[in-house]
Amino acid sequence: MKKLLSYIKRKMGSRIDAGKFNPPMIYPHVIETNLRQRIYSTNPLIEKHAGITIHYTADMDENRVIGSLESKGYGYHVLIRRDGDTVQIAPFNRRVHHAGMATWKGYVPNRHHIAVAFMSWGWVKKRSDCRYESWTGANIPPREVRYLNGQFWHFATWAQIEALYKLCDWAKSLKLNPEMICGHDECCIPPGRKVDPGGILMPHIIPNLRKGAKDYDSSIEEVPGVY
To answer: What is the maximal distance between C-alpha atoms in the chain?
Structure first.
């Protein structure tokens, strides 16, 4: 059997069906594993030119996020909660449909990328009474809002950003090239079709990850809040 698997791997390389020959690949630092079969494909993630695409959920109800993904045929591999806890909902060695029409450095994120989503409302509206609300009308505390590039955003917490750095550093063990890390707004086709992660992250964070940064230095950030 081992000889047979070895022969198949030589012939098929990283396209070998992860569901048939390998157990689900789980991130060792997850706080919770909640694999949902309706979210991920039976096709394996292609390890060559593997990358990470960063999203936000546009909702703060985790069960509702997962239910929406299942009903629409979309998915993420992991969700990062506001306290930095990471929940895995799809194995890293399976594909999820997360980016739609997209390309990054000549490769298709839906085939090659791990999908990471911050629990965040994303862009928010400022009401006439100076309160902030999501696209659903949910109230958002001003201390969680930042103005960036002409828009108000439900800013990612330091704990979430630190969790992202930790995940990206671990992913190097999967032969991930840091240059293959991108935001959904960077890889979508046509440009401008998507805005996530947008201003929930300061502009320098993803470029720093692409340079191979291992740790997030919160001392270079201002405290999240409205400016």
So the answer is: 69
Tell me whether residue 20 is in a domain: no
Q: Give whole-number Cα distances, 144 to 152, 166, 222, in Å.
A: 10, 22, 12
CA dist., res. 204 & res. 1, Å (int): 49
CATH number of the domain enclosing 89 = 3.40.80.10
Closest CA to 75 of 60, 55, 61: 55
Q: How far apart are CA 84 and CA 29, in angstroms?
A: 11
Q: What is the pLDDT of residues 99-125, one digit of tens each?
A: 999 999 999 999 999 999 999 999 999
Between strands 113-118 and 78-80, the pairing is: parallel
Nearest-angstrom CA–CA distance, 194 and 198? 9
The 10s digit of each residue's pLDDT in 35-51 is: 988 899 888 988 777 89
Q: Which residue has the higher pLDDT, 48 or 97?
A: 97
> In 3D, which of 81, 113, 84, 80 has the Cα closest to residue 96?
113
CB-based burial of residue 47 (10 Å sphere; 0-12 exposed, 13-18 middle, 19+ buried)? middle
Strand order in the sheet with 132-133: 139-140, 132-133, 123-126, 151-154, 145-148
The total number of structural domains in the chain stands at: 1
**For residue 24, what pLDDT is reported?**
83
